[in-house]
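Dock coenzyme A; give full complex structure.
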Amino acid sequence: MAILIRDEAPDDIVAIHELTRRAFAPMPYADGDEQDVIDRLRASGALALSLVAEQDGAVVGQVTFSPAAAPGGVDGWFTLGPVSVEPAIQKQEIGARLIRAGLDRLRSQGAAGCILLGNPAYYSRFGFCVAAQYAPAEDHSEFFQMLSFAGPVPDGRFGYHAAFAG
Ligand SMILES: CC(C)(COP(=O)(O)OP(=O)(O)OC[C@H]1O[C@@H](n2cnc3c(N)ncnc32)[C@H](O)[C@@H]1OP(=O)(O)O)[C@@H](O)C(=O)NCCC(=O)NCCS
């Protein structure tokens, strides 16, 4: 069945919440509030980009991008995540297509780069590198990764939008 990658629409909001809850529920590293983070970002006007994967009229995947707090207040950095794919159809490149489409969009809009917290075994395929020295002080820095699109990386620690903290 064909997969369509598109921007989220108002009618997708409930489906994104439920999909994110289902996808993260079995994950030992999940905080349990990933679906609420997306809702809080949206409510704060900080959902910079939300792409969904649609299959047969249903939302089966979603990726979130929000403005990151770069050192020195430098503009143009984004946080990738949460990202989810319907558990029954994971490992079919839907997550990869969502992430690549999101990164391409940010690049085309002149973004400086992207940060995330996740497993390097997955995100290295998109060009992310572990960047422990830039990690927020509270993070497990071996999971903090960065992809710079252009220009120098501002020196110091990055942070996430306040919506991640609850
Ligand atoms: C992570 C996720 C979005 C990837 O989407 P997907 O469509 O299943 O993934 P893809 O088909 O693009 O890629 C599959 C590969 O990713 C790997 N992978 C998926 N999740 C991974 C994880 N958390 N850590 C390491 N590798 C992971 C798979 O093992 C597979 O590896 P391979 O290509 O070497 O065989 C999806 O698995 C998911 O929703 N997971 C639950 C929620 C979650 O953990 N989100 C990310 C938190 S950092």
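Observed: The helical segments are 13-24, 34-43, 94-108, 120-123.
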